[in-house]
Specification:
Strand content: 15-25%
Largest sheet: 7 strands, mixed
Bound molecules: pyridoxal-5'-phosphate
Structural class: alpha/beta
Strand order of the largest sheet: 1-7-6-5-4-2-3
Distance between the termini: 20 Å
Low-confidence stretches: none
Helix content: 25-40%
Mean pLDDT: 97
Shape: globular
Number of strands: 7
Length: 192
């Protein structure tokens, strides 16, 4: 427990995340994404006056899931497991590197959950967090960043420009067992 709170502090420093953020140590990014989106689901329904833990999904108001066309498959799994329905996803066009094209993001609102990516699995590309997060925050949208291997770019003087603006998101998922090459299984969810 002590180690976790020390590491939580280190992670917040490395990723330059808001001080009120908390970390959960899980089995990998699949589970970290599930946890981040579970928090997103809770808060988004709460904003609409619906206590998802008490009332469940039956008769719940509609919420929106907005993701890039190159989102990782585990994001889709989490959406399915959380009962949000893959068919409800609003897909956003991406460029040739798999980056969300900011102008293609639909009008967001407080019923939306936006999922961005730090490190596209084939190209390594990062979404334009700074610009996109400003817009999404203004709209009251929850932002999750899937940074399984890429979030660690924040620890490199040379690469950290790629993560500019990640601190404006609400939840983040990252692996220990990829970039850091820790033993399996090691993933982390961070949540504002
Ligand atoms: C690997 C990866 C995941 C899933 O991570 P696991 O640790 O295998 O559960 C999710 N998103 C991205 C971008 C990944 O590279």
């Amino acid at each position: 427990s002590k180690l976790e709170s020390v590491v939580e502090m280190w992670l917040k420093q490395i990723f330059n995340l808001p001080n009120e953020s908390v970390a959960g140590f899980v089995s990998g990014s699949s589970m970290a994404i599930l946890c981040g989106l579970a928090a997103a689901r809770f808060r988004t329904f709460q904003k609409l006056g619906w206590d998802i833990n008490a009332k469940g999904l039956i008769n719940a108001p509609k919420i929106r899931i907005v993701i890039g066309k190159h989102a990782h498959g585990t994001v889709l799994k989490a959406i399915a497991l959380l009962g949000l329905g893959k068919d409800n996803i609003e897909w956003v066009d991406v460029d040739e590197q798999g980056r969300i094209i900011p102008d293609k993001i639909p009008q967001l609102d407080k019923s939306s959950i936006l999922i961005l990516q730090a490190g596209e699995v084939n190209s390594g590309a990062f979404d334009a967090f700074d610009e996109i997060c400003d817009k999404a925050r203004k709209a009251g949208t929850w932002i999750h960043i899937d940074g399984a291997f890429g979030l660690w770019a924040a620890a490199s003087e040379k690469l950290k420009h790629l993560t500019k603006g990640i601190e404006k998101a609400d939840s983040w998922s990252v692996d220990g067992h990829k970039t850091l090459n820790t033993s399996y299984d090691s993933g982390i969810v961070l949540c504002r």
